[in-house]
Amino acid sequence: REQRNKMPTYPGLDRYQILEKMGDGAFSNVYKAIDKMTQQKVAIKVVRKRELNHSQKFSTALARTLNVIKEKHLHRDMKKKPRAIERSNILKEVQIMRQLKHPSIVSLLSFLESQDYYYLILELMEGGELFHQIVKLTYFSEDLARHVIVQVAEGIRYLHEEKGVVHRDIKPENLLFEPIAFVPSKNPSPPPGPNEEPKEDEGEFILGVGGGGIGKVKIADFGLSKIVWDEQTMTPCGTVGYTAPEIVKDERYSKSVDMWALGCVLYTMLCGFPPFYDESIPELTEKVAKGQYTFLSPWWDPISTSSKDLISNLLTVNPEKRFTINQFFEHPWIKNEHKQPIPNA
Ligand code: ADP
Ligand code: MG
């Protein structure tokens, strides 16, 4: 919290007052801020342009398609800087996010840039990362895990079925939530002195069903996402393209990567540790490639066989046999006919 008094200022962000740092991504700094004109709280993802230079290269066909999209949809100001467009990945993230509007997807409110930075003005998710919530609670009850995974899956269904977008980076760090209850800390900090900012209460947010509603969960970080190809028409979903068959073939099963990730997230929420883990990266890679995971005793003993069945169908190595998003929603554990109220975790 000591950083509160030395928040950075960025050119071109005069409309916003930066309040505190919320997250450090691999390529970005994310701040909580307030829109001075509307008093709306937002999140601002700041990305330095210079570090984008070595970002992933697109395949030629895909790059061409994306250029068509850029020409059509991107902000007028950005067209003046064609070289910056070619080099950056953040613009793809922005271009995809602009097309998305769903309760389970963090929305992009505005996009700004200065000479050195891009700024994504995002819907603020006060609770932060689901990752931290798993760490805090150790593991979730089955009802709480269902409550979370269903919301994530609704976001994925929207991306896959309506927008032809694969996220490709579903993980607890990129799943954000809105709290429904705030439990104040037991030792509140003393009142602020005359020249001090008030300290934030160190209490915690609780996710689950509380006083008036259910905490919302949303998918963030479209930095690795991309548009995929429709299997029947062999055209990119949601856009027009001139793509070679080998690219279409490669992308055929790309939606299934999100389903695998969904299985990993569900597994992790239920027991508190990930399905695949090894200190050594080559060993870990090997385990993932073979789909080597177990429902480790004693942690998994009290957890329902139905949830294990669902996880097994998501953590299936063969992408053709892996559950699709529609099969996911048909599974008995998800349908959970007799809906029970979700206890606070
Ligand atoms: P990166 O591509 O660098 O991983 P992310 O978009 O994932 O960037 O943002 C990094 C982190 O910032 C997230 O993991 C999260 O902790 C925080 N964050 C991002 N967007 C928001 C938001 N809309 N509300 C609250 N926190 C956010
Ligand atoms: Mg991220």
Descriptive overview:
This protein is an alpha+beta fold and 345 residues long. Helices cover 34% and strands 16% of the residues. A hairpin with a 4-residue loop joins strand 1 and strand 2. Helix 6 (142-163) runs antiparallel to helix 8 (255-271) and helix 8 (255-271) packs antiparallel against helix 10. The model is unreliable at 53-87 and 209-214 (pLDDT under 50). Magnesium ion (MG) binds at residues 25, 173-174, 221. GO terms for molecular function: ATP binding; protein kinase activity. It comes from Rhizophagus clarus. Residues 16-334 form the Protein kinase domain.
Task: Chart the SSEs and their pairings.
Elements: E1 16-24, E2 29-35, E3 41-48, H1 60-73, H2 76-79, H3 82-87, H4 90-98, E4 108-113, E5 117-123, E6 128-129, H5 130-137, H6 142-163, E7 165-166, E8 175-177, E9 181-183, E10 204-206, E11 217-219, E12 226-227, H7 245-251, H8 255-271, H9 281-290, H10 305-314, H11 325-330, H12 332-335
Antiparallel strand pairs: 1-2, 2-3, 3-5, 4-5, 6-8, 7-12, 8-11, 9-10
The structure holds adenosine-5'-diphosphate and magnesium ion.
